[in-house]
Design brief:
single chain, mainly beta, two-stranded antiparallel sheet, 15 strands, 0% helix
Length: 239
């Protein structure tokens, strides 16, 4: 759902989370100010719950859902909602711009489905948002993604309490990973206002902290007809 919260996935606030082997639940209260922006009086509430269903030692399913309610206040800026359909640091497009100040309002909800079986793991999400637009009208955006990956000789770790995947298991002297992913975001009120991208990637894990990534991305902006392609390489060190 990062397209629905472009540039503001991380907000300052207070949260509480509890989790265990069967799943987890979290709640957060937050302001609508990014760390590099002036203070404003907007506020929000988010909830997320997940459940892990263990089938056997190498197979499990993850189901989850979340809700985000945001209301603006004095000084809350307007937000552009869209995403970089051409790949990392590639071309991007805006589907909608929200209202500003006390007129800002966005209600978003999503569902999650993920799982793993041996060296295979998959995950996906679908979300819908209702937002206030300039001039007093409202709009609806829908989006989601689906991803499938294969780790020959390894297995993706999973934290049931947080409801997230972690680094692969059994990396040893290195582990390869093949990934395919599709992302899509559309304006439900306007025909042809669609952004999408698909990508194929090859990763090599040198250790739990070091990863090298080669990825081809093909994007599409239906409104303009732009369909860029991007070949990217990244090296990542987590500390």
């Amino acid at each position: 759902a990062s397209g629905l919260f472009t540039g503001r996935q991380w907000q300052q606030g207070l949260g509480w989370q509890v989790g265990g082997e069967a799943g987890g639940f979290g709640i957060a209260l937050f302001g609508l100010r990014n760390s590099n922006e002036p203070r404003n009086e907007g506020h929000g509430l988010s909830l997320r719950g997940t459940r892990m269903l263990r089938i056997d030692e190498q197979t499990f399913w993850h189901v989850g859902g979340w809700l985000s309610l945001e209301e603006g206040g004095a000084g809350t800026p307007a937000r552009d909602i869209g995403f970089a359909y051409g790949g990392r640091r590639g071309p991007s497009a805006v589907l909608r711009q929200t209202a500003a100040g006390s007129a800002f309002s966005q209600q978003s909800a999503g569902v999650e489905l993920a799982g793993a079986r041996g060296p295979w793991h998959w995950q996906g999400e679908w979300a819908r948002a209702r937002l206030a637009l300039p001039g007093g009208s409202s709009g609806t955006l829908e989006g989601g993604y689906a991803q499938l990956a294969w780790l020959p000789g390894g297995q993706r770790s999973y934290d049931a309490g947080d409801g997230v995947f972690g680094s692969p298991k059994n990396i040893g002297r290195g582990l390869w990973e093949v990934i395919a992913r599709l992302d899509h975001l559309r304006d439900a009120d306007r025909s042809g206002a669609d952004l999408s991208r698909w990508s194929l990637g090859l990763n090599w894990y040198a250790s739990p902290q070091v990863r090298f990534m080669l990825q081809w991305t093909q994007g599409r902006d239906e409104a303009s007809g732009d369909d860029p392609g991007q070949l990217g390489f990244r090296a990542q060190y987590v500390f």
